[in-house]
Amino acid sequence: MNQSNKKNLDFIKNSGVNYFLQDSPRNWFESDLRTNSSPKLSKDINIDKSYKIQQIIKKINSFDTPLKNSAKNLVVYDGSLDAKVIFIGEAPGRDEDIQGLPFVGRAGQLLNKMLAAINLKREDVYITNVVNWRPPDNRTPTDDEILQFLPFLQEQIDLINPDFIFLLGGVAAKAILSTPLTLGKLRGYWHNYKSLQLNKTIYTIASYHPSFLLRSPQYKKASWEDLQMLQKKLNEKN
Q: Comparing C-alpha atoms, which of 120, 123, 16 is closest to residue 79?
């Protein structure tokens, strides 16, 4: 791990994220810390976003993790670097590991339908995961693995600079909201996400992972309600 990522990870750990014991979601970064932050992304960010995402990908690829030993391909993102919404899932599955893209299997097909239902396309949004290598046998990422990849996810959020984050599943909710609360208690409400690098609040909502919805279709109604909340915010923004 390079020194920059180590400092980022140490900061996250010192903030208590490694314990995931919050009784309610909280922001990682409080406003009084922002005075020590690095300058905001430059005005010509649209020109060099492609370069910067490639640098992030290189850092993730060079990061030493046992997950590499069983995975075929690194999976970072799909969609637009200028997206207003970031969708964050858990980790790549078999199909994603083969193709090197997030959400391309059955869960990805359902996600495409979910996006279409609120007049969005994959190319309109930014899609990524908390962990960028497929865990063996599609197991759930460990807390240590979540922590190891959080700095890279943070960099992606800072680069995209979205207005909204849509969390797909419990792992993403745990990572971004730093809370042990179940999705049943988290969903249906907007949460606030703040970063050291961005002088703004990003509205964040937690909902069910498409893979879970395939196994438990009775929760699709609740997921649709969450999507409608996002659609309403997008319409208000426009």
A: 123
Mean pLDDT to the nearest integer, 53-66: 97
> Domains plus CATH for the chain?
3-13+48-237 (3.40.470.10)
Whole-angstrom distance, CA of residue 2 vs CA of residue 33? 23
pLDDT, mean over the chain: 86
Structure tokens at 157: 């959020």
What span, in angstroms and rounded, lies between the C-alpha atoms of 103 and 75? Answer: 10
Band of pLDDT at residue 15, cut at 50, 70 and 90: very low
> What's the average model confidence in pLDDT over 182-203?
93
Burial 174-185 (b: 16+ CB within 10 A, else e): bbbbbbebebee
Nearest to 178 by CA among 162, 164, 194, 189: 194
Residue that is written with structure tokens 């599943």 in the block: 169
SS3 149: helix
Residues 6+ positions from 69 with CB-CB distance below 8 Å: none
Give the range among 1-10, 26-35, 220-229 with minimum mean pLDDT: 26-35
